[in-house]
Amino acid sequence: MSEPGTPSSVLRLPTGETVCIRASGRDNAGALFEVDALLPPGLSGPPRHRHLAQTEAFTVLEGRLRVVVGTETRELRTGESVTVPPTVVHAFANPFGEPARIRMRETPAGPLEGQFRALAGGGRFPPLGELAAINVRHGLPFALHGVPDLVQRPAWRLLARLHGRRHR
Q: Tens digit of pLDDT for each residue in 54-74?
């Protein structure tokens, strides 16, 4: 399976994903963020989460992808897609023994591009302060599932504030 994209648009995440940016929200007034990603075998993927205003669509280009949308878990195969509306809890993973190549679209573009760039530059551990600052800058459209907003929103703001103080 070949890696997607050209070297100038490729991000390598510490968890093994290779992400090729096809459309940047920076270039289209925030209308769309689209990537092709190569997911290694055994990838657990992001935790269950939701987006306040973004729709995400996943299409499998090669291999298989396990996707959780709301209470439903599906296994997508090559050529299959799923669309996740705003506010619906979701997650994805590649628990299988072979790589998966997917296309992911976020409309309108939200904080995902910044999150990918932060993760690619963050080293071995996720840069939580930077991720929080990105989320806060975008109006807190990203939320982890299972953590009440009453707790989560102030925690994101506090982490972002601490990050800002550290990087002045």
A: 999 999 999 999 999 999 999
- CB-based contact 144:152 (threshold 8 Å): yes
Euclidean distance between CA atoms 101 and 154, whole angstroms:
36
Q: At what angle do helices 149-166 and 128-137 cross, to 10 degrees?
A: 110
What is the pTM for the complete model shown?
Answer: 0.88
Question: Scanning the structure block, which residue is given the tokens 């296994």?
Answer: 75
Residue 103: name the closest of 70, 62, 53, 42 by CA: 62
- Inter-helix orientation angle 112-121/128-137, to 10°: 160
**Angle at 61 (CA atoms; ends 30, 67), nearest 5 degrees:** 75
**DSSP track, the chain:** -PPPS-GGGEEE-TTS-EEEEEE-TTTTTTS-EEEEEEE-TTB--SPSEEESS-EEEEEEEESEEEEEETTEEEEEETT-EEEE-TT--EEEEB-SSS-EEEEEEEES--SHHHHHHHHHHS-SS--HHHHHHHHHHTTS-EEETTS-HHHHHHHHHHHHHHHHHHT-
Measure the CA–CA gap between 114 and 117, rounded to whole angstroms: 5
